[in-house]
Amino acid sequence: MVVIHYTAMDGARAALDRLCDPAAEVSAHYLIGADGTLWQMVDEDMRAWHAGAGQWGAVTDVNSRSIGIELDNRGDHPFAERQMQRLEWLLPGILDRWRIPPERVIGHADMAPARKRDPGHRFDWCRLARQGLSVWPQCKPRETGSDPRDFWTAHTMQAFADALRGFGYPVPPGGLASPEMRDAFCARFSGLTGGPEILAAAQDLAARFPVDRRPASA
Fold it and tell me: What CATH number did the domain enclosing 88 receive?
């Protein structure tokens, strides 16, 4: 898979220094500056320390199964146009070389929602999806006939958790989605308004892109 991050640092040079410092014990395959400058720090067939603890579907050692891309951004402002263009230039080659489907391009917050927020709500996932470099829900919520404020019941909360797990989020079997998971989902698929639309989006993604439909070694 591919995991997208923001650096949360003051400029690309500061991020590059840290990512290349052995004492920091953190690394990534690529860093893209706000001006579109691209640095490759780790070969794609080598393991980088960018993901840490977390899970996506059956994959619990994400570092060993992913390519990490850091974007020079603090997380509180839009991603620069040149930076996005460079990312859109980089991703197709990675996906082709490693036969990675677009649904396995995820954010750091997706696989570790309890401790991470990047790339955050300012990152344009829909833009990537329009180019086949990620995915986006294609659904409308079903009419329930009830007050939307009363939507979240034990049944709908369980259905939401099941859908998130089916798409890849680390929801324990039989458990419910944590508030952090719901926040990560809504930050990534921005524009969802209200419980019915959130649940419909999660179920649509789980149905069209079940996370473990491919062998774990694929």
Answer: 3.40.80.10
- List of residues 6+ apart from 106 with CB closer than 8 A: 1, 2, 3, 4, 56, 168
- Report residue 185: phi and psi, to 5°: -65, -45
103 and 22 housed in the same domain: yes
Long-range contacts of 21-24 (CB under 8 A, 24+ apart): none
**Closest to 89 (Cα-Cα) out of 43, 37, 161, 145:** 37
Please state the φ and ψ torsions of residue 54, each to the nearest 5 degrees.
160, -175
Indicate yes or no: pTM above 0.85: yes
Q: Is the dihedral of CA 205, 209, 213, 216 positive or negative?
A: negative
- 104-142 pLDDT, tens per residue? 999 999 999 999 999 999 999 999 999 999 999 997 655
Nearest-angstrom CA–CA distance, 48 and 67:
8
DSSP-based three-state secondary structure for 147: coil
What CA–CA distance (Å, rounded) separates 154 from 30? 42
Task: Let me know whether 125 and 177 are in one domain.
Answer: no
For residue 103, give its domain range.
2-130
Indicate which residues carry an active-site annotation. Answer: 70
